[in-house]
Each structure stands twice: as structure tokens, then as C-alpha cells.
């Protein structure tokens, strides 16, 4: 796949030189405790490299040489359900509102399709994550229902999660 770029940003597969910035962005979202299920941060660049290399693909978005966000893409399950992908997105707090999340999600749809996946599924979109919910609706994801209390936020409160899917065969 060619790099997706405009004058402000480049979306591309990650390179080892990106690891420190990727780990910082990923850990910021983990610390926020409002979107990712992970509790533990990536401890160092070696752990980050193992984690990001274990994905089917890890992609970053940069602008003017500065890394601003990333996503990971991998199978959601195995075997007879291995055609369903899953993805997670992280944008640095200082770069939010620049539509980088949209660029990352749209890129992940194309990459997932090109890798042979038929569906992209999000298992746990937290109901209070209004910007993500709005973005996924705008792009054409379908909500699958609500799982009451499916996410434990960092304040110790349970929030609903809303699984979503996108049929990649329609791209």
C-alpha cells in the first residue's frame, strides 16, 4: 500500500526509530484509563517492540517529522473466525482534534481488507468515548448492541461498552 499523505501528515507502517514516541502515546492512552482495556504501560522500548511486532501491522501517523498517533491491527480471533480483524487507535493528547483518528481508522480499513480480512470489529468502544462513537458512525460502522458495565475505568466505575463492526467486503 502506498503511503497516505497530505501536506500535514503521513500514515505509514512503523519503523524501529518510532518506538519511543509510540510507547509514549500508547502509555498516555493506557494511563488515561478511559479507552484501552490495558492497565499496565509498556515498560521500555524492548517491551514496546515485542508488542508492536506481534501485531499483523502497526501503523503510525506523523506530521513534520513528529509522531502523533498509531494503530495496531490483528485478527480478532482464530480459525473459522480468523477473517475478522480488530484494531486499536492512539493519538497523542496534544494532537487530538486534528482528524488524525479518522485518517488512522480509514487507513486500517483498507489495510485490513488488503490483508484478506472481511470484517473489522471493535470489541469494547466505551460508551463515554463520544468522539470515537461519532467517528465510527460517520465512517459507517454498525453498532452491535451494548454490554452493560463492560469497562472498568480508572476511577473504579463500570461503564457500558458498544461493540462495532465494519463489513470490509463493501470497500
Automatic annotation (TrEMBL):
Pfam family, any one: Acetyltransf_1
Gene3D superfamilies according to UniProt: 3.40.630.30
PANTHER family the record matches: ACETYLTRANSFERASE, GNAT FAMILY, N-ACETYLTRANSFERASE ACA1
Domain (N-acetyltransferase): residue spans on this chain: 9-165
Database matches in InterPro entries: Acyl_CoA_acyltransferase (IPR016181), GNAT_dom (IPR000182), Mito_N-acetyltransferase (IPR052742)
GO MF, one example: acyltransferase activity, transferring groups other than amino-acyl groups
Top-level taxonomic group: Bacteria
Lineage: Bacteria, Bacillati, Actinomycetota, Coriobacteriia, Eggerthellales
PROSITE patterns per record: GNAT
Name by which UniProt lists this protein: N-acetyltransferase domain-containing protein
Species in which this protein is naturally found: Slackia piriformis YIT 12062
Amino acid at each position: 500500500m502506498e503511503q497516505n499523505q497530505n501536506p500535514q501528515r503521513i500514515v505509514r507502517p512503523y519503523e524501529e526509530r518510532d518506538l519511543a514516541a509510540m510507547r509514549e502515546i500508547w502509555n498516555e492512552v493506557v494511563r488515561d484509563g478511559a479507552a484501552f482495556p490495558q492497565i499496565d504501560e509498556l515498560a521500555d522500548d524492548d517491551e514496546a517492540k515485542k508488542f508492536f511486532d506481534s501485531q499483523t501491522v502497526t501503523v503510525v501517523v506523523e506530521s513534520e517529522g513528529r509522531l502523533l498517533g498509531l494503530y495496531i491491527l490483528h485478527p480478532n480471533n482464530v480459525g473459522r473466525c480468523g477473517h475478522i480483524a480488530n484494531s486499536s487507535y492512539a493519538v497523542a493528547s496534544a494532537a487530538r482534534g486534528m482528524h488524525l483518528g479518522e485518517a488512522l481508522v480509514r487507513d486500517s480499513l483498507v489495510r485490513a481488507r488488503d490483508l484478506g480480512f472481511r470484517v473489522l470489529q471493535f470489541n469494547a468502544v466505551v460508551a463515554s468515548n463520544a468522539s470515537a462513537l461519532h467517528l465510527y458512525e460517520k465512517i459507517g460502522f454498525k453498532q452491535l448492541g451494548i454490554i452493560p458495565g463492560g469497562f472498568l475505568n480508572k476511577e473504579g466505575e463500570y461503564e457500558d461498552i458498544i461493540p462495532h463492526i465494519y463489513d470490509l467486503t463493501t470497500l
